[in-house]
Write a structure and sequence with these properties.
Helix content is 32%, strand content 25%. By secondary structure, it is α/β, with parallel strands linked by helices. The strands form four sheets. Strands 1, 2, 10, 11, 12, 13 and 19 form a seven-stranded mixed sheet that branches. Helix 1 runs parallel beside helix 10, helix 1 packs parallel to helix 14 and helix 5 packs across helix 9. The structure holds flavin-adenine dinucleotide (FAD).
Length: 412
């Protein structure tokens, strides 16, 4: 049990990327800070377990290097981000098709034209969507009329075929929303982020990101310290210790934050992920693999060791199967059954490493969706986290920094 200070300027509840971003801002401005984290390590939803030498992120996650807050708050070079190739490998009826971003991977132009993911008009519309979302300021994409993504895609003229074979597995996978009911605004933002930069994974796993952030808060993060009560200018831990402060920042995930501060309820997005060890990679591509049937339960997958060899011991491979909204039942069998239709009986020889069932992966972001929610709740209490902005690393880190700035201003 770490020794807690009796009094600090600011207590931050939660050492996910939002809490760490807030704490770092305040620490840099010379305020005294204590970060109290309930779990045994920093990172919250961004953690990596090392199992038999394999690096297992808690759920299939990627860094989109175009996220402005990543560029601003993190040393991406030190993370040694290994990039996926732009595009995807679409599995459809026992065959695979490379669908690339011809603007960044011209070699994929012909295969993309030939891939049975939609009509030629669909492919032209994807190119138009790309140029529309890349044009101008990201804030413009977050304004204007809002609709469920599926409705917006249909209104834009996309066929059901391309929705099922491309948009559902890709964006349903990223947004953990197979029904594509998430706000069109968020869809546009993700589409822009995918087109503008690289998607990758750090050499040491996604958990290296919060670890790097925490390294700049030496001695200020207290692990295994759950906060039970927030009362104005003091917090009490679950084991009865009390810290007096001038402000409290609640940076817990929404269901936990609601037990400390009065916040409206929002439905959770859930996610399952199954990891397998393979002696032979089922594909040599460094691409995200998409379920072209659009039916799941595995909507996307990847051979992570093709992208970052450090994710597996030498001579072995790591396969992840991502199952948005699936956390119940025998996920391992479901994943094997589906991937056997893609890659045949080699899948039966894969060794199951671990299954993750994440009940709260994020909050629903239905239209009309506006990020940048209020962070100040009066009496010295502030709240940040992905539920106060967009449901992403970008949103969590941005809300954390914004909250740190707000508190610094209030205490100055
Ligand atoms: C499976 C999955 C895939 C994802 N994929 C992506 C992706 O590809 N790209 C992307 O940008 N984003 C992705 N995300 C979303 C992203 O991970 C989150 O938006 C972000 O990590 C949220 O950070 P946070 O700091 O707001 O919350 P959290 O990470 O949840 O941190 C909250 C912290 O508060 C702590 N806490 C809670 N209650 C207490 C208490 N009472 N006392 C002390 N501590 C407490 C928790 O233990 C936790 O450490 C994904 C998420 C999941 C789960």
């Amino acid at each position: 049990m770490s020794l807690l200070p009796a009094r600090v300027d600011v207590v931050v509840v939660g050492a996910g990327v939002a809490g760490l971003a807030a704490a770092r801002h305040l620490h840099a401005k010379s305020f005294s800070v204590a970060v109290l984290e309930a779990q045994d390590d920093v990172g919250g939803r961004v953690r990596t377990d090392v199992v038999e030498g394999f690096r297992l992120d808690r759920g299939f996650q990627i860094l989109l290097t175009s996220y402005p807050e990543l560029r601003r708050q993190v040393d991406l070079d030190a993370l040694d981000v290994h990039a996926f190739d732009p595009g995807a490998l679409v599995m459809y009826r026992n065959r695979s098709y490379v669908v690339g971003d011809p603007f960044r991977a011209p070699r994929t132009f012909v295969s993309t034209l030939r891939a049975p993911i939609g009509t030629p008009l669909d492919k032209m519309r994807i190119a138009l969507l790309r140029s529309r979302t890349l044009r101008g300021d990201a804030r413009e994409l977050l304004s204007g009329s809002d609709l469920p993504t599926i409705v917006a895609l249909r209104r834009a003229g996309f066929s059901q075929k391309v929705i099922n074979r491309f948009f559902r597995p890709l964006f349903g996978g990223i947004q953990l929303d197979p029904s594509l009911t998430t706000s069109r605004r968020m869809f546009d933002i993700i589409f822009r982020s995918l087109s503008a930069g690289e998607s990758g994974i750090p050499r040491l796993g996604m958990g290296a990101l919060p670890r790097q952030m925490a390294d700049r808060l030496p001695g200020l993060v207290h692990l295994n310290t759950r906060v039970a009560n927030v009362e104005g200018r003091a917090v009490t831990t679950a084991d009865g210790r009390r810290i007096e402060c001038r402000a409290v920042i609640v940076a817990a995930e929404l269901p936990a934050a609601r037990s400390l501060v009065s916040l409206p309820e929002r439905a959770s997005r859930r996610a399952g992920a199954v990891y397998f060890a393979a002696t032979r990679a089922p594909t040599a591509e460094k691409l995200v693999v998409l379920d072209g049937s659009g039916k799941g339960p595995v909507l996307n997958a990847a051979v992570l060791s093709n992208v970052a060899p450090s994710y597996a011991p030498a001579g072995q491979h790591l396969v992840v199967a991502a199952m948005p909204d699936v956390v119940e039942g025998d996920l391992e069998s479901m994943a094997r059954d589906q991937m056997r239709t893609w890659w045949g009986s080699q899948v039966d020889a894969w060794r199951h490493l671990r299954t993750y069932r994440i009940e709260h992966a994020g909050v629903e972001q239905r239209p009309p969706f506006s990020p940048k929610r209020n962070l100040a709740f009066g009496n010295g209490v502030f709240v940040c986290g992905d539920h106060r902005d967009t449901g992403s690393l970008q949103g969590a880190m941005f809300s954390g920094r914004r909250c740190g700035e707000l508190v610094a201003g209030a205490l100055a």
